[in-house]
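Batch job 17 of 40 flagged for manual review because the log was empty.
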Amino acid sequence: MSNIVYIATSLDGYIADKAGSIDWLHAIPNPEGSDLGFGAFIDRIDALIMGRNTLDMVLSFDIDWPYSKPVFVLSNTMTEVPEGYEDKVFLVKGSLEKVIKQINDQGYQDLYIDGGITIQNFLKQDLIDEMIITTIPVLLGGGAPLFGDLASPLQFKHIKSEKLIDAIVQNQYLRVR
């Protein structure tokens, strides 16, 4: 069982700009249409856990539903899944440990943790086992940070770095326990 972060940040550690936009993620030309390893990553996981804000962001994209795995959305205020997504999105609430156990008990062991606040909350409770962070070479100067306050430091071991599309660096880290 593992909880894995797969996310992109700016050089200065933001996941969204000051206006909440992620348009800057496409600042680097990608003429070959590389998925930057996302397909291989999705093949590794069983399900996703994301916050409501991340779900709203994904639903705002003008694309088909991008996930082939179940998506569990953490929300204390959402009472129903958006129409048309009833077989793809499942609402969960409660303590993160309870939510993880509930999802693991359904047979989903390797979980993709997505969304800034969700990732920060998982880190605050030391519930992240692995992080794959793709750095886009742009400075945003502010916005939504990937990381927040922690009660104490969390040690990670660097496993791998990879240069993608000749401009982006992807780093993989494992939690040292």
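Reviewer: the log was empty due to a logging misconfiguration, but the result itself is present. Residues 82 and 108 are 23 Å apart (CA to CA). Unflagging and moving on to job 18.
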